[in-house]
Design brief:
Layout lengths: L1 H13 L8 H8 L9 H11 L5 H11 L5 E10 L3 H21 L6 E5 L3 E2 L9 H4 L4 H6 L2 E2 L8 E2 L7 H5 L3 E9 L5 H11 L5
Antiparallel strand pairs: 1-6, 2-6, 3-6, 4-5
Helix pairs in contact: 1-3, 1-4, 3-4
Amino acid sequence: MRACRQLLRRCKDAGRHGVPVSSGEIEVIVTGDKLGTFTDAFVDRVVQDATTDHDECIRSLAQSIQNRRTPKLVKEVVELGQNDGKGRLFKSECKHQLADLASQLGIHVGRFLYATTKPLSLEKRGGSLDVSAARGLESEERDELMKVFVGTDEEPKSLVDVPETLLNHLGNYRWFAHRLYIVDNGNPDLVHKAREIVATWDS
């Protein structure tokens, strides 16, 4: 998916293979007789045409998609905590060092794909959220709070409010993940070299 998105963006920027270059062109397609052709088949044609493009990046991305060769993971940085310090450092390193890495490997920098996941939390309501603030949550979110009866209490409490539970301590923590991939097109040596170099980065 990410490789295809990168391919379409680069084809658009290059003005090649029939990819609309502006919102105006897209509007003409979706409001006209060509709407029926704006399907997955349209993307398939772009990929097919781009496999012989003279641009090394566009060609490599298209060939990877056509041959169903998924990009290979170069490095993953994950962290469970209240902030994303390691991930931000890794993202900064990618921003400043990928061009040099691509030069060392003899490939276009566009063959690297950077991906990050939406932070995952154990509870929508963190441990530092007080009761009054919790009441301000949408009804659906309030319904999703896990509650238990404690001792002789007549009303259940959210697990985040119970000091003995893990959620009380981890409610404010989130899981962050950042990944760097390379479109290798079946070249394991390329993947190995990329991993070796990236492993020396500070993150």
